[in-house]
Amino acid sequence: METIIKSKTKSVVIGAGHPFVMIGERINPTGRKKLGEEMIAGDFSRVERDAAAQVAAGAHILDVNAGVPLGDEPEMLINAIRTIQKISDVPLCIDSSVMDALEAALGAYEGKALVNSVTGEDERLDRVLPLVKKYNAAVIGLANDETGISNDPEERVRVAEKIIARAASYGIPREDVIIDPLTMTVAADPQAARNTLETMRMIREHLGVNMIAGASNVSFGLPDRSWVNAGYLPMAMLCGLTCAITDPTNPTLRQIILASDVLMGNDEYASNWIADFRKRAAANK
Amino acid sequence: METIIKSKTKSVVIGAGHPFVMIGERINPTGRKKLGEEMIAGDFSRVERDAAAQVAAGAHILDVNAGVPLGDEPEMLINAIRTIQKISDVPLCIDSSVMDALEAALGAYEGKALVNSVTGEDERLDRVLPLVKKYNAAVIGLANDETGISNDPEERVRVAEKIIARAASYGIPREDVIIDPLTMTVAADPQAARNTLETMRMIREHLGVNMIAGASNVSFGLPDRSWVNAGYLPMAMLCGLTCAITDPTNPTLRQIILASDVLMGNDEYASNWIADFRKRAAANK
Questions:
Q1: Contact A232 B263 (CB under 8 A)
Q2: Which residues of chain B have pLDDT under 50?
Q3: What is the biggest distance separating any 2 CA atoms in chain A, rounded to whole angstroms?
Q4: What is the pTM of this model?
């Protein structure tokens, strides 16, 4: 199954057999105080730099979040989107839980966006999905609902099914729903990663849709997190993960993803891997 | 299923749920001209240093190979084993395809060795397995036979079954057979890694024995091989790989293995991971 996300001039295909899609996570003021302050002051130069750096590092799509407390989120989100679309043709993933901001952003965006995100809660589904349909977007569905996040893979699959069915009822085809099976930290529960990997396998087998992860959640609370994230990504790719919200400017993560694409047979004759190697070798000269 | 390898004073358990066992690969003159020359000259100081370095980096077992063209392999192998057993208590994996050398080494070794290796060829099975039994060792069984290396996972499983059955006929219990499902390079065949991973899954499901890999084979012919190996190991661990012949002094490999143990639930509360992190942090001060 293929999910296609577009800018005005560029399409990105997410799907098994295609190179893994890296969605750059850095344009997000959560935990980045300076970026938040600049956004409020109307200064989007850092957004521009971060966008360029992530694209140069291999991001296929950029996540854009403008959620700053007391900020005018609709306006800031539109500014961020316009700033990025001026300097780059990568498609965008619009990341907001505020309905006004989401609708304003979808209206301003040129292309077919990915909406980040909707849960399996009825109230959220019935607010977000009509917007996804209206603006002909795709959407990330998180496998939790009113009852919270289950440790039981079957329960998460059930929530994923519910999201896909509800999307269909609004006229959104299943290829435009990307499920996030929810990655929790292994620091709190040694079985957390295996539960999510098992959920992925079941979703691939029973639902066949594309899957996404915020891979860095797996290492929350641990030291030297990049390596734990780097171990998780190949396992998840093997279980059906086809894209992730991640930081391609982190060489550990970028290199493990590109290497895993070779191993999965998504990068025939390792041509992307070899091109990246040459770029790195030239940069180190 | 647990395979236990011993020195005189130390036991290492290989098995699902236990931390992944790293078998240090460096004591091997293949492609290390200087080491080979020194071995022939009776100088085992490099063997001693390489053993110490690998153990310091976390090797649980050390592979020992003394195959130098024109060298007296039985004598050199015994010298290498005695050198290592003098300075370290890690159990050893005795690596030779020469019957005289193997028998001499097994006679000299104090403990329960791992023999590297036997194929599924009748002639090899009937020469190696009696020695494994006589010296109460465990053995690595390579999933190829007279017909070569099959691309078909089912065929490799069949060879693994044959090795286990033949071992049983010599009185060697199945927990003392560790199957190597054969890792081939993705540079020649984009499906090579997936074939082996599928073989691993089938062996885990149908035979339940421990599995080993020479993980670095997967990247033969590619640039920046460590990263490709590092992507392969987490995938393989998820499919049932419980040990590997690898280089623990390579930080990329060691760190991805330790991180993957956390993800697999083999390192509860990440205590090994955190200990390794602290050691690295102290070393970088």
A1: yes
A2: none
A3: 56
A4: 0.96
